[in-house]
Amino acid sequence: MKKIIFHSISIISYLFPTKLLIHLSRVRTVFLFYHLISNNAPIHIKNLYSVRTERKFRNDLKFLLKHFQYTTEIIRHNSSKKNYFHLSFDDGLKECFEIIEPILNENQIKAVFFINSGFIDNKDLFYKYKVSIIIEKLKTEKINKQNISHLSEILECKTKLKTVIQSVQTINFKNKYKLDRISEYLKINFIDYLKQYEPYLTTNQIIKLKEKGHKIGAHSINHPEYFEIIEEEQIKQTTESLNEIKQQFDSEDNLFAFPFTDNLIKISFFEKINRNFKNIYTFGTAGIKYDQIKNNIQRIPVEMFNKSAKTTIKTQYILYILKKIFNRHLIKRK
Ligand SMILES: [Zn+2]
User: Fold this and answer.
1) How far apart are CA 172 and CA 169, in angstroms?
2) Structural domain boundaries in the chain
3) N or C end: fewer C-beta atoms under 10 angstroms in the chain?
4) Quick one: DSSP state of residue 36?
């Protein structure tokens, strides 16, 4: 549904000049995030989402710089009549250092990088990346009948390759142990994969990003879906990752981006985190929207519908203006 609405509005978005949308919405700062920019989608990501090329990213920045100026501060209600964009990158992939930073540097833009403390230096692999690696193997190699039968047993699904692939795609944080069992049958060694591909940023690269003027924030320890875990675990994931990032990178900012989404996160969670971390800002992924929790900032997921930043932002502005008419522009929490 969300996809259909987005696509329908994106088609007519060219009719509305950006300046007009900013003026009508009175939203002067847009918060955007990406994961990866690369001309080659790595195996651990290619079956999860479409990866933006360097050329398309450069075009995105051109559009942004035409209408906004960058900020790494949180500017919500500004009176200076300036428009800002706040750029962040989630998941701490090595391409942040190798590809993204050089492009940002060319354009003299600073950004925020949200890092999973458990993955720095390729210590561990995000379970969704395991999903992508497994699917790649299932799609590209001949899998014998016996193995399909073993996999369907683990996944509790029909003994058909297509159904096995579909079931792997739906594995979540709670049953991610199944991925390790599947990998044994498929002879995939995730530790070797980590060594060979080194998907993540190293400690040294993160230090260099910070020295170049970018900000470093936390993104949980190992990227769980927060609504699948109890609040105590949410607090642990948030607090431990924030403490580690702050300590390791000498960061005075308290910045935290929720893994996946901040959907269904309760007020009690925010109260506890706000008590533990002074002046913290947390970040969600709901597009242009305001939040009942004043220091919880919603960001636009630019990669989600695989459209340019221009089309994505303009569509988000139109959606926001429409939501505001029906008083649906504010996220209310229990
Ligand atoms: Zn993430």
Assistant:
1) 9
2) 30-123+200-295, 127-194
3) N
4) -
Q: Measured between alpha carbons, how far is 192 from 127 in angstroms, rounded to an integer?
A: 15
User: What is the CATH number assigned to the segment(s) 30-123+200-295?
Assistant: 3.20.20.370
Q: What is the pLDDT of residues 286-317, one digit of tens each?
A: 999 999 999 999 999 999 999 999 999 999 99
Report the C-alpha gap between 311 and 173 in whole angstroms.
Answer: 33
Q: List the shell of residues around ion ligand 1, using CB closer than 5 Å.
A: 90-91, 259
pTM: 0.96
What is the CA(83)–ligand 1 centre distance, in A? 27
Long-range contacts of 39-44 (CB under 8 A, 24+ apart): 42/197, 42/199, 43/132, 43/133, 43/136, 43/197, 44/125, 44/126, 44/129, 44/130, 44/132, 44/133, 44/193, 44/197, 44/199
Q: How much is the pLDDT for 1?
A: 77
